[in-house]
Design a protein that fits this description.
Layout (H helix, E strand, L loop, with lengths): L9 E6 L1 H4 L11 H8 L5 E6 L5 H11 L2 H6 L5 E7 L19 H17 L8 E4 L6 H12 L7 H18 L2 E3 L1 H4 L6 H4 L11 H18 L28
Length: 254
């Protein structure tokens, strides 16, 4: 069947629930993945590979499934525009004795991120596909505790400071391995107090409409700055750089 369908260049978004839920927010406004898909309509296939509740330990186990030979054959190396890796919100949950503890120690978290980046690049040897790492977002502790009590009658303790610390490791990995970075913690106002970043979060952890828009804008800024040839082409009628719309303009066909 795939041989019968014309494919476009691929954008692969690998992450946790913030990626899985990225097509729309709880308010039914477009999420960051939905906004990105709209920007690349008729230009690229945006593949959402978000896994709710997963941490980087789980992500490493998923690598053979998400980045496998069949997928790479379907989207040849030269047609992969870029990959985002967005894990850490669950890794940064606080340690402790409780059921379903998603915490991953920070040293292991860093190692797992390095493993993920190296594995992806090992499978696209002909071209060093850009990998964009995204830091964990801020965390509104009171709002998240309230949500967990109401929805699960249990807590999943987290802190804004812990999210920031894990984000610093993401930046380190990006710098040392040559990846681009989207600092969602700073973009959403994680350093400015809960009155600022709380508006960017739907339940204290996942993104609100405002948070999704800020993350999307930050991602597009990085793409335009670091990989202008991979950004959506601004003017289809000139020779400017960027990814053009597939096919002729309809006015040229009538």
């Amino acid at each position: 069947l795939t041989k019968m369908i014309m494919t476009r260049p691929a954008i692969i978004l690998f992450g946790d629930s913030i990626t899985q839920q990225g097509f729309s927010s709880a308010a039914n406004s477009p999420g960051w993945v939905g906004l990105l898909s709209n920007a690349y309509t008729r230009r690229a296939d945006v593949l959402n590979r978000g896994f709710s509740g997963y941490n980087t330990r789980h992500a490493v186990d998923l690598l053979p499934t998400v980045f496998n030979k069949d997928m790479l054959n379907h989207h040849p190396n030269s047609s992969m525009l870029f990959v985002t890796v967005f894990f850490g919100a669950n890794d940064a949950s606080l340690p402790g004795e409780r059921e379903h503890n998603q915490h991953v120690p920070i040293e292991e978290y860093e190692l797992n991120l390095r493993t993920i980046v190296a594995d992806i690049w090992s499978k696209v040897e002909e071209q060093k596909t850009p990998i964009i790492l995204i830091t964990p977002p801020p965390l509104d502790e009171q709002a998240w505790d309230k949500y967990c009590r109401e929805e699960f009658d249990n807590l999943s303790p987290r802190s804004n400071e812990q999210s920031k610390l894990y984000g610093e490791r993401v930046k380190l990995v990006a710098y040392e391995m040559g990846c681009s970075i989207v600092d969602s913690f700073s973009l959403l106002g994680g350093n400015d107090g809960v009155s600022a970043y709380g508006e960017c979060l739907e339940d204290g952890l996942h993104l609100s409409a405002k948070g999704n828009e800020l993350l999307y804008d930050g991602l597009m800024d990085v793409i335009t700055r670091d990989f202008p040839h991979l950004a959506p082409k601004v003017n289809e009628d000139d020779s400017s750089t960027g990814i053009a719309l597939e096919g002729a303009q309809w006015k040229d066909l009538c």
